[in-house]
Amino acid sequence: MTRGRVVAFVLVAVFLVVGAFVLGRVTAGVAPSPTTDSAAAGFLRDMQVHHAQAVEMALLVRDRTDDETVRTIAYDIAVTQASQSGAMYGLLDAWSLPQLASQPAMAWTELPARDGSDSGHQMDPDAPDGMPGLATAAQLDALRAATGDDAVRLFLELMIPHHEGGLEMADAVLARTDVPQVVSLATGIRRAQQAEIVVLQDLLAALPPAA
Amino acid sequence: MATPPNRPAQPTIKEQRADKRAAQLAAFKKQEAARKRNRILGIVAAVAALVLVAGTVTTVLVLNATPQQVDEELVSGDYADRLQLYPDLEATHTENRVSYDQSPPVGGAHNPAWLNCGVYDEEQQSENVVHTLEHGAVWIAYDPASTTDAEIAALVELAPDTYTVISPYDGLGEAMAISAWGAQMRFTDVDDAAVTDFLTDFWRSPDSPEPNAPCTGALDGPGKVS
Predict the structure, then answer these.
(1) Chain B residues touching residue A27 (CB < 8 angstroms)
(2) I want to staple A107 with a disulfide (CB 3.0 to 4.6 A). Which of A103, A165, A183, B107 is the partner?
(3) Do B19 and B81 belong to one domain?
C-alpha cells in the first residue's frame, strides 16, 4: 500500500466513525432524564397539588361573584395553572416517572442547593402537607359558603399567600435543578405569579371593608 | 535536390494484424483493470456501509443504555398474581343506575357528575365513583362491617391526599379493594407492599381515559369527612 492510500484509508475510517456517532447521537435523542427522587421530579409532583388548589379556588370565586375584573383574573389563574399542571404531569410521564412520590410531600426542598447556598430545610411545617401557601380544608369550606364581596375578599386573602408560596417553591427548585424544561416552567410560574400578586393586592385594597 | 517527403510507409498486413492484437490486448487489460477496480470499490463500499450501520446501532445502544430512568419499579410476583386487569371498558355517560361486572366497579358507563375525591364514611354511588376513576383517581373501598377505625385511619394515612376516594362498600368481607380504571387488587393488610406497587402503577395513570382531569368541583357525596 502506498503512503497516499494509507492516508486515504485512515481518513475514510475516521469519517465513518464520526458519521456513525453523529447518526447514532441524533437517533438516540434526548439526554438522560431526572430521577424519581430528584428536586425536579418532586417539584413537578408537589406543584401539581399546589396548582390544583389554585384552580379550584379560582373556579369557586368565579361562581360566586359578578365582578368582571375578579372573574377575569380567576379565569386566567384557572386556565393558566391547569395548563401548567398538565405540562408537569406530561413531563413526569415522558420521563417514565410515576406521578406517585416515593417520599413525603416537599421532601425535595430538603436537598441541598446546587450552589451550596442552602443545605436544605423543611419549608413550611405548619402548612397542609408542608406546602407554603396551601389553604386548609376549613378555609376552602369557608370560600364555598361565601358569596359576593365576602367570597372575593376570602379568595384574595387566600390566593395572595398561595401565590407567594408558589414563588417560594419555584425558587426552591430553581436553586436545585438545571433540567431545562423544569427551569423554564418554574421561571414562567415565578414571573406570572409575581405580577399577579400585585394585581390581587390592588383588588383587595379596592374592596369595601368587611361588613 | 529536394528530398522526397518522408511519407510513412504503409504498414504491411502482418503489421496491421499485430497492431490489432495489441489493441485488443490493451482493451482487455483495461477492462480487466476496471473490473478489478470496481470489485475493490464494491468491497470498500460494502465494508463502509457495514461499519456505518454497526457504528450507528452501537452508538444508539450505548447511549440508550446510559443511565436513563428505569421504566417502572419491578413488581413482585405476588402483586402481579393478584392484580386484576380489565381492558376495553365502556366510558359513556348515563343518568341511569348501571349494573357493573365487577364489584366494586373498575370502569364502564357512569354518571355525568364525578364524585369529588376525599374520604367518605358513607357508601357512595358507584356511577359517580367510576367517573372519578376515569379521571385517574384510585378508589380504596372497605367493608364497614369488618374494618376497624384504626385500619381506616391507616388507609387514609397511606393514600395520597389528592386523586383518591376512600369509602365503605358493603359486602367486601375481610378484604379491602384498591381500584383504578381497568385495574383492581384486593388486600387484607394495610401495610401490604403490593398496595404501594398498585398506587405507583395506577394512581393518576396516563392509561386512565382522562388523566389529569379534575378530582374536585363536581359532586360531594354524603358523609364526606375530608
Answers:
(1) 56, 59-60
(2) A103
(3) no
* Chain A environment of B212 (Cβ under 8 Å): 85-86, 89
Check whether B25 has a pLDDT greater than 70: yes
Chain B residue numbers touching A84 (CB-CB < 8 A): none
Q: Which of A27, A89, A96 is facing B60, going by the closest CB pair?
A: A27
Domains held by chain B: number: 2
User: Between B83 and B7, where is the model more confident?
Assistant: B83
Q: Could you tell me the domains of chain A?
A: 3-206 (1.20.1260.10)
In a shared domain, residues B132 and B183 = yes
Of B48, B68, B160, the CB nearest to A32: B68
- For residues B62 and A132, which has the higher predicted lDDT (pLDDT)? A132
CB A167 within 8 A of CB A194: yes
Please, are residues B155 and B140 in contact by the beta-carbon 8 Å criterion? yes
Q: Judge: A52–B52 Cβ closer than 8 Å, yes or no.
A: no
Q: What is the ipTM of this complex?
A: 0.74
What pLDDT does residue B65 have?
Answer: 61
Expressed as residue numbers, the domain containing B188 is: 72-94+101-202
pLDDT the model gives residue A11: 85
Residues 170-189 of B with CB under 8 A from A: none
Q: Where are the alpha helices (DSSP H) in A101-147?
A: 137-145
> Does the pTM of the predicted model rise above 0.90?
no
